[in-house]
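Sample entry (167 residues):
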Amino acid sequence: MGKHFKTSKLKLRHLRKIAKDFSDSQKEEAQRLLKLTKFCFAYFDDNQEAAQSFADWQKEDLLQKLNEKLVEFSKEPLSHWLRQKCTDKSTVFRIYDDFPSENSSFKEPTHVPANIRWAAFRLQNLPRVIGFILPDDDESKANYQGLDRNTFYIVFLDKDHKFYRPG
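Predicted structure, serialized as tokens:
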């Protein structure tokens, strides 16, 4: 009986070690996931004249490109895309901060939260995905406590680059 009890202690110790290792790897994976770009469509708006719907993008053969790019963008944090060049002067991801009212064919929607940072992902030459991210200042961290800072909230599909037209 003593021998069987010892074996059980060893088994329990081994099982605890396996559980701890598994728990540590889960924590590492959770930390990695928190850093990756995520997309949210809760504020999507295709009702404006300058905006397009997914059906519009399907007709223009842009929907597949959008899906492919969302998959690609999801593999890195937002900060990566801010540094990733697509031309000499432009990056894949651009933050505008404020809504560009004077230089836009779009109207600022009333259904998005206040104090957000407007931004765009460039898909190709002209097509963009327009949306916002949450600010990173202390007040916003308190107001948006618990929300992910690597989420891009998609508001518009902009196939003709009309969200921001340099003045």
